[in-house]
Amino acid sequence: MALVVLGCGWIARRHAAAARRLRLPLIFASRDADRARRYAREFGGVGAYGDYAQALRDSRARAALVCTPHDRHLDDVLEALAAGRHVLVEKPLARTLEEADRMIAAAARADRVLMTAENFRFMPAFRWVRRALDAGLLGERREVHLVARGWRRHAGWRLTPDAGGGALIDGGIHYVHALRWWGGEVRRVFALRPPQTIADMAGEDAVALLAECEGGVIAFLSNSLGAPGLPRFQWSSVTGTRATCFVDNRGRWALVRGTDGFRLRVFWRDTRGHEAMLRAFGDSMTTGRASETDGAEGRRDLAVVLAAYRSIAEGCPVTPGC
Ligand SMILES: NC(=O)c1ccc[n+]([C@@H]2O[C@H](COP(=O)([O-])OP(=O)(O)OC[C@H]3O[C@@H](n4cnc5c(N)ncnc54)[C@H](OP(=O)(O)O)[C@@H]3O)[C@@H](O)[C@H]2O)c1
Questions:
Q1: What pLDDT does 140 receive?
Q2: Three-point CA angle 199, 203, 208, nearest 5°
Q3: Domain containing residue 214: CATH number
Q4: Which one of 39, 54, 67, 177 would you pick to mutate in the ligand 1 pocket, going by the greatest count of ligand atoms within 8 A of its CB?
Q5: What is the pLDDT of residues 279-309, one digit of tens each?
Q6: In Å, how far from its chain's centre is CA 207?
Q7: 95 Cβ inside 6 Å of ligand 1
Q8: Which residue has a Cα nearest atom 5 of ligand 1?
Q9: Atom 7 of ligand 1, nearest CA residue
Q10: Is there a domain that residue 81 lies in?
Q11: Which residue has a Cα nearest atom 36 of ligand 1?
């Protein structure tokens, strides 16, 4: 049974490459039939359509991968569910909590899986951080520090208000997910944004976010698209009472360093977690069990992003979801 890829853009290529390695049959849907055929040729797809709805009706389709801009996620997810397909939707799940709730309710009504394609959750290096925490290697957790800053000149839909925001709701939401996963649920967020560098972008090009998580853990996230001159080599860290765990943002290594010495792990395979994510989606469809990044989890990430936006607008700390 095949997966229908809705939207033949950049991230669709990552999913298609992972699906091909896992030998999962793919059907490509594009607004442009030629593009769908090109992707099908390149990634060994079993079908190609110039229309999303037609592709979803293909009797071989079991699920849909929504790889479209943020303002299309709601409609594309609802259409896929209405066609009886399980759905893996790119992050952010939605642009508002209301949109997220509509998707979650529709998936429950249709008795279909709704999973957020939060690949950071499936990156082997990032999972190793979580295991180090669970094994007590860091002691009691105290601080999470995430830095993802660089220069990225976007074009097209990402520059418009339809994206639902700027850096944080786009690439930054991955780090919000890691922050919650390693630091615990966010109780309060205070966020600021510097003066804009990328003038033609409707959303923010940079944000600094300070969060208070459960148990008093403090997390800091600095995320920027408007910071020229920085190396791509950046890492995040979690500090506990006994050690700090550092992890390469691109998932190639992680290390723990502290009072009990030093442990380094290097990762070679599926470093961005796309294969593991597709396997988890498959498991969820087969067993009916919620995946680690189900709709509710995508909604919680979004709630933190939206709280940060409100904090920026109001100049005070905000509790996510309130
Ligand atoms: N997990 C990650 O690391 C990661 C990285 C990048 C992006 N993403 C997410 O993936 C989604 C797509 O991002 P992307 O970078 O792949 O974007 P992209 O390269 O612009 O691709 C989006 C595709 O959506 C389709 N589309 C449908 N309606 C459109 C419209 N009105 N305007 C533009 N495109 C439209 C187009 O495909 P057709 O013309 O073929 O229909 C387009 O190629 C977003 O949710 C984004 O946040 C995730």
A1: 97
A2: 100
A3: 3.30.360.10
A4: 67
A5: 999 999 999 999 999 999 999 999 999 999 9
A6: 17
A7: no
A8: 11
A9: 11
A10: yes
A11: 7
pLDDT in tens, 60-69: 999 999 999 9
Q: Do 37 and 90 fall within a single domain?
A: yes
Domain assignment present for residue 321? The answer is no
Residue for token pair 């060994």:
44
Q: Which atom of ligand 1 is nearest to the CA of 8?
A: 40
Give the C-alpha separation, 77 to 3, whole Å.
14
**pLDDT for residue 321:** 84
Here the CATH number for the domain that contains residue 25 is: 3.40.50.720
Tokens of 222: 């600095």
Q: How far is CA 231 from CA 204, 227, 264, 270, in A?
A: 21, 10, 22, 23
**Ligand 1 midpoint to CA 9 (Å):** 5
Kindly report, residue by residue over 12-31, the tens digit of the pLDDT. Answer: 999 999 999 999 999 999 99
Same domain, 261 and 189: yes
- Residue 98 is part of which domain span? 2-118+274-292
Task: Give yes or no: residues 166 and 208 share one domain.
Answer: yes
Pairing outcome for strands 218-224 and 141-149: parallel
Answer yes or no: 91 catalytic.
yes
* Domains contained in the chain, number: 2
